[in-house]
Amino acid sequence: MDDISQASHLSVVVDLSPMHWDLSAREAPENTYPLSLASFLSQLLAFLNTHIACRHENTLAVFGAFPGKSIMLYSSSDPVSPSAEMHANAYPPFQAVDSAVVQRITAELDALELRDDEEEAPSALVGALAKALCYVNRITLPPSANSKAQANGFHPGVLPDPRILILSVSPDLATSYIPIMNSIFSAQKLKATIDVCQIYGPNTVFLQQAAHLTGGSYILLERRDALLQYLIMSFLPPPSIRRTLSVPTQEQVDFRAACFCHKNIVDIGFVCSVCLSIFCQPLAVCTTCRTKFPIKTLQRLNAARPLLATATATGNANGRPRVQSGAVLGANGGVGGAVANGAR
Amino acid sequence: MPSLHLSAPVEQKNSPHSLLPFLQSQSQQTLNKLYSRPSSCLSIFRLLAPLQQQIIMNLLWLESTISSSTMAAWVVREEKKNYDAALSPLFRLHILATSPIKLALSATFKTSMRQALTGGGTTGSFGVPAPKDDKYPPMGIDELDGYALERWETILHYMVSSGTGQNSMRPSKDVLFLLQQSGLMANSQGSLQITSAGFQFLLHSPHAQLWDLLLQYLRLAEERNMDLVEVLSFLFMLSTMELGREYSTEGMNSTPQVAATHKAMLNDLRDYGLLWQRKPSSRRFYPTRLATTLTSSSPPLPTSTGPSSGPKEGFIVLETNYRIYAYTDNPLQTAVLNLFVALKYRFPNLVVGSITRDSVKKALSNGISAEQIISYLIAHAHPQMRKNNPLLPVTVQDQIRLWELEKNRLKSQEGYLYTAFTSPADYELVLNYARQLEVVLWENAAKRCFFGSLDGHANIKNFIERRTGGNA
Lengths: 344, 472
Known about the structure:
heterodimer; A: alpha/beta; Rossmann fold; 2 domains; 3-stranded antiparallel sheet; 10 helices; 35% helix; globular; disordered C terminus; B: alpha+beta; Arc Repressor Mutant, subunit A; 4 domains; 4-stranded antiparallel sheet; 22 helices; 15 strands
């Protein structure tokens, strides 16, 4: 309860993949509730303003994930040069945020149109997330971190509960499994909460895990016409308020991992007993740590594969691939049995 | 971490902002008029507790009303009490429309708050920026800070030095009147003297001091027949303005009466250092940091420590041997320390003194409490001190509290002394009766007398009369 009156920091990562926003904006019958980028932005800006409105000291950073590129759209620590046009009907900080975010997004999207690639690169969501984490790290540690007291978090400028909100529209990108997991672990270390709102498309496995592992909340938006209400009710309250007014949490979390060899999301994988790399099929040599596995083990595991595939998968609560003890053979360097993830 | 939290001044954490009770005492009509301005809504919203803000936000974008039970379903069961406690001030502020089963924001508040967040409308309540002035260069933020600091410290310094008999610069007559009205200073022997409330005021955080004075100002405004809504919304408008930007006084006055109110306020607030004008008749003004941080909770005010006086966080080092080292060259801070510290040496950037029984007793007799001394020391502790856990040496903290207890050694209680009992048996009988009633405060069997409290007297008197009557 002590930190209740302190400022909080919010970093918002916005997925701005034009392709998926186009899909999202299509009218019925494809979408029950079409949501265009423009109406999304106006609701997002209202949400950002609400965050700044709550407290004078609240800080905000906005990151945009464009195809193949991620940039910082706004941050309250190094504000953009104040635009000359200020009018009497709006609160100046709101104007600054709104104009900065809209300008940057328009500029980037225009630049994208000019480029005219035949195929759109996948959205750089992880890059934006990593930048958000770097930013949180920067503001959490005060500049003069040489004194011990400041390192312990006694500095008055330290923000108690940094949060990152990911607004995603693209589906899972299996190639980004490792960077996402790394981001999750650094978020845990920073004690940052990651909230996720999947605005369009199916559930994303990795973002679900990100929210679960950092104590955030994950929402798959169903009524997309009510986006702002969702944002305010679930993602505005800082953790101290969430103890009083509860926010939706996930009943089930999809804990599946992606294999390192083909970047497939696997139900059952094979884990190197030395470095814990995950593969979708038994390998003679681990591609990560070059450990050689006995041929006997490989044969046995290959023989067992169809059997393993039908075996009931057990849940795995800490998100790290777990080696099923029954399937491990040979103390040193057997392909350690199957990972069974996925709580479905 | 825990030591810092434990030690932080309690008043700021739990109790609502000092302006809110004042607003709650206003009529619904006044409040509704106030809520018609987006900037006022935003500022009031900022003063509320986080939980209340969340409740308002949950309701803000709903078109229909929502039943209380639906809303209450979101509340974690153990926190129900906090939730209910958060709701009731919102009803009293008329932000929530009164209805037992439905929850809804008042229509005016809802419209204005939406307008504040989305930016729109034509109310102009966030201040009209002045067009660029070619005649004068714009004021820098440092200059504004310097001005605000100088104004504010003049007031505080005047208060401090009035107690010691030194002469310092006098603030303007209106400020003196306000200080006198608020009971922080009192007229004695032809000159203004600081009162015990004034001493306590000096140890508050700058933010609390500012609001204390402004609250007094608001009360005065009522007496001066100023329109309270206009006064409040002008203050709130100032709080939403941008530091370092020049604003115009034109465009916000609709009637001559309102214009007069604004004119008077510009004059007063200039005296307090909340805004700066090139000359009193100027039609443009700059808000200072004092004004723009009105609705923020932590005080990044320039007053907390002057730009010239060392580290921003704190300057006091207190040792277990009661010695105090204050790294400051600010005369105001030195003067405040002098209230409860026996100062010994003075260097260009350092003041050394020690906390003694006499110095603390002097402070106590001025009406300052031990808690206030301790919280002042904690609030201004040097960053080096913050490594310690607990922050202040326990011996010193306890000793200051013990010195306060010393003052409270005598406790008076009204009552009656019962003497001259004819026999020990009589005495025992009455005493036992009094003991049953639990009204005996003191007894002495050798002298055959005891002292009973006031509320037991009637019973004892009856008892004695019944006994003597029976014997006779």
